[in-house]
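ping. complex inputs:
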Amino acid sequence: MSVTAEAGTFLERAPLVLRDAVVQWFPAPLQWLAHHLITIVAILAVFGVFFAFTTVAERKLLGRLQNRLGPNRAGLPWIKGSKLFGLTQPFADAVKALTKEDIVPAAADKLLHFLAPVLVVAFSLMTFAVLPFGRNLIPVELDAALLYFFAAGSATELAIFMAGWASRNKYSLLAAMRALAQVISYELPLMLSVVPVVLVVGSLSTSEIALAQGGWTFGFLPHWHVFTPWGFFGFLLFLVAALAESNRAPFDLPEAESELIAGHLTEYSGFKYALFFMAEYFGLTALSGLGVTLFLGGWQAPFAFLEFIPSYAWFMLKLIGMIGFFIWARGTLLRLRIDQLTRLAWQFMVPLALINLGNAAFWALTSGWSGPLQFVRWGVSIALVVGPFILLGRGLNGGRGPRTYRYATS
Amino acid sequence: MNLALILISVLILGSAAVALALRNLIHSALLFVGCWAGIAAFYLWAGAEFVAFAQVLIYVGAVSMVVLFAVLLTRQSDAAEPMNPDSFSRFMRALVAGGGVAGILVGAILGTPMDVSTAGPAPTLTVKEIGGQLMGPHAAALLIVGLLLTVALLGAVVIAAVDRPEKSEDAS
Amino acid sequence: MSPLQLCLLLSSLLFCVGLVGALARSNTILVLLGVELMLNAANINFIAFWRYGPNPAAGTGVLFVLFAIAVAAAEAAVGLALVIAVYRHQKNIRLQEANRLKG
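pong. complex structure:
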């Protein structure tokens, strides 16, 4: 037992020890630079590979959900007949994207057309800087980390606009407007679903929020926010808003591949298109990481006896779980109409998120209650979640039933 | 230390000046975004982290979107308006006025002895302290700002909404 | 030159750029953006004096800037809504032509 604990603590510290060892090789004035460069390279490497395997996992899982096989042919090119279950597919895709012709429309605004994919990847990568990947394993320790996350995330809207406008294509511009309308509408519920966590923990720092969820009741029930009524509901709101923010099914209207050409990406090809694709996955991963940090206990182990597994492994496991859920949702749910989409945001999610904020305030005020009062606390909190949900959910489709279609008869 | 400040200043002033001189409105709006981001960088340099992120969130994320939508909704013909003598003389007068103000301000700043301790470390103000200040001594101001924002946004929606449906019937 | 003086120079020059822009351009949106720049210049002053002032712990400068940013956002929203309303009435957003009270 002591051996595993020792190994656990060593594995726990391993990334930091490795980084410090490498930093030691640099001369003293450059050490701070090396320190940050190593962090950046580590994030790029880990999440680059993670992105590659997310795409292949998504394609394979979607294939299974649609009763087909998915990619299973790509193996190693220098070994004849190797298939490796298609696991090298993303690398083949990367080669394909890199070698394709990069077409820029003649009328396009060349500079902005080039800048848009670069900016969108840069901003979506910047959000990774404040995610606590493990115990003491956070790239930048900021006091206002959550504000930073949303500031960097909201800057991607600018890149969407630039992509749509610089293409000089009216369909691109219209699609960019639609994408912006969607992203801006869902930014509000996303932030409002995060505010209760800030209220209860009393900090905007992501590492402190992750730390605050440590500990277990009776040794097996973790103190994650998702296991409280307001936290569970906030997590659901966060999931829906995150899906919409990252333009994924069932909210993938901006680039609905079966209905539009590619929305604001119509005029992009080759590697620039791949960059947008990459930014979408980075954004999704960052939002999932934020969800894990805020609601699913961050890097905390679910049970006390599992603590010997290093914290970053728990974080990655939870992250993979979230991504898997998103892929599952994509394979299962139908795409919404634009009016349903905005109505869901403004008439349903925003009021519910505000009520949930009040719920969290009630939870924080009654934190001293004990004994039978605990049951009252849970009861009131659950009622505050279920009641408005049923009431507002009934009004959501009120009088608007399913659409009736009339077809032309010759 | 001062080098960073000078670089940030050049970024801010350069993008602002070019933005106001450009003919293409979208380009100038995007350059304004660069200018606001530069101002956020200045706040970071000065140690006001929270204000810097608020600046990025509000200006780069929200105000820029409103500006860009307004530019697109009020687009005129693509042909740039010609530089007529009237606008040229106005430009010269504006330049004289701005230059005069700049001269007075720069003279005043350079002529005033400032005995402040510049050697001290950057002061830190945690988010918790800012929150305490906002909820304590400045609670009334916070409430008024919330009310102001609500009223202003409602007013903006009312002003910008199409208010005369009968006119559209005439048109069609 | 002390950093405080540099900050003040930056803010006064930015103010003048905004002033020239607001006076010289006839496009309403650009005039609004010029005014917005002048507001930002004032904010820079507040932060500079907070940073180098005698009592940074009070944080008054930071709080003032936060309120100023909120008010500036409201100003931009209302101003641009007015621009859109004016455009709808006269298909033009040149300032000197918006001189009729009757729409």
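Chain C has one domain: 3-97.
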